[in-house]
Amino acid sequence: MREALFVKHNSAKWKKYDSFKSDNPDELAQFFLEITDDLAYAKTFYPKSKTTDYLNGLASRFHQTIYRNKKEKSNRFILFWKIELPMLFKQYQKPLFYSFVFFVFALLIGIFSARYDDQFVRMIMGHQYVNMTNENIAKGDPFGVYKQAPEFPMFYYIAQNNLNAAFYTFTSGIFLSVGTIIALLKNGIMLGSFEYYFFSKGLGIESILVIWIHGTLEISAIILTGGAGLVLGNSILFPKTYKRMESFKRGAKDGMKICIGLVPIWVFAAFLEGFITRHTDMPVWMSVFILGSSLLFIIWYVILYPNYLHKSLSYKTSNGRKL
């Protein structure tokens, strides 16, 4: 579409948005989504035009209206997890996907390294942990490590450790995303060597049924936090049409929101590890139900629901009209 025709088709709508004064969160979300869609189209086909500059400014105003410091409405807490966080997952689906790719790549490194180097697992997991696990395997209780501490102290320690790791993974993205990538590689290699160790002992399926009760949410949260770190780092590397400082502020704010949104997942994963994983003799169907439900939740909330929400808001805003 030529730029003149693009402007002609949308100028009336933009003028209406330019004079829009309401603080209704649903309308603001819909209009912001429409403007950002138009801005993305303009950046693609008219990157250096005045139209793109105008839409960039308009989108910035809507962004500031939505996120400016003001007295929050009573349902703001709910709207964050219902709309804002899923829309961030949609907006930053590429960094989240890249985080997944880095993690899987590291996972494979860990698996193959452990397979071809007998000492690799000890180097990654530590001699003490491997020796203890070997002793537990000899006793017929290979996952006894999850029973060593009382439930609540273990839950508290794990939750604290998880949140500290998440904060580090995110904030290290400030080093041009390199810090976050390194954190993802470390976690992926550790998981790969850890799982290969149990498979090499003939305990692969059992390890999945036990460890992934909490690991499904925990590993998902690591990957998503890595995506938030990439959002932060990429905002410095690739400012696009924004000034670098403005881009950094946006990336830091959005990345932090993703991290905050993941706190309940981190905490619940710690709860599962502290209170549930220790029951290594639970029925197989129950284990499969817990880890399967966790996986389905992540797929739905991070991928399916954000895409549905994006399409739904786009339809409501444009009444089904497509450019």
TrEMBL record:
Pfam families: SpoIIM. Keywords: Membrane, Transmembrane, Transmembrane helix. It comes from Daejeonella lutea. InterPro entries: SpoIIM-like (IPR002798). The chain crosses the membrane at residues 96-116, 165-184, 196-213, 219-238, 258-276, 282-304. This is Uncharacterized membrane protein SpoIIM, required for sporulation.
